[in-house]
Amino acid sequence: MSATANRRSFTRRLALLGTTGAAVVALPLTALGGAHAASPAKDATYTVKTGDTLIKIAKKEKVSGGWKKLYEQNKGTIGANPGIIKPGSKLVVKKAATPAPAAKKATTGSGWTAPVDGVKGSGYGRNGSLWSHGHTGADFPVNTGTPVKSVAAGTVVTAGWGGAYGNQIVIKHADGHYSQYAHLSAFKVSAGQSVGEGQQIAVSGATGNVTGPHLHFEVRTGPDYGSDVNPITFLAQHGVNA
After folding, report:
1. pLDDT tens-digit profile of 184-228?
2. Catalytic residue of the set 135, 177, 183, 214
3. What domain range is 170 assigned to?
4. Is 173 among the residues known to form the active site?
5. Which of 17, 112, 165, 202 is a Cys-bridge partner for 238, taking CB atoms 3.0 to 4.6 Å apart?
6. Strand extents, DSSP E, the chain
7. Residue 158 falls within a domain, yes or no?
């Protein structure tokens, strides 16, 4: 017998069973392959009403896995034919778990946040052999691959190679200050793009003039070298303990 004939025969058999007084549903064979992957779920009980079908119940109760899973879990109650469910029957249903709310960004509420999580920056103004003047930023000791965030909303001025800074990003903020992120291994934004507070803009690395992986972070009153301010003090003034 052809596949088409099988489908017609199956549907006719289900329709004839409607005279027995049980709730009936015609389940075309094409509906059998659409079950979704199960997710964490909770057990509940559903009492079958006149006119109910497995499809209706699964949809109404948001059953994880759809009607096919509902039948599998209640085969002992329903019997061999999923097209017949008796009113008054008690079915166990596993509802799809409600997705957990998305994690909120760790921000201060002041509009500013730290450029990386979990470590403190240091070294501003320090003398050293790697720079001709005092250290113009703060270094955050993080491994290559650490997410780097914009400390506040702003517009990306530069995202590219910066000589001794290696791969760098400079962002202009609404108050007129600029923040710089250097020695990056990869960019997540490009010049001209608007970014939000706490948005990932890059991945830390060890490019440019470095002795090891870390994030070099500066705050400036202008876009160019030499207009720096103490970035740790600046962030502290905005409620950020960096």
Report:
1. 999 999 999 999 999 999 999 999 989 899 999 999 998 877 788
2. 214
3. 138-237
4. no
5. 112
6. 23-24, 41-47, 84-85, 90-96, 138-140, 147-149, 154-161, 167-173, 178-187, 194-195, 200-204, 215-220, 228-229
7. yes
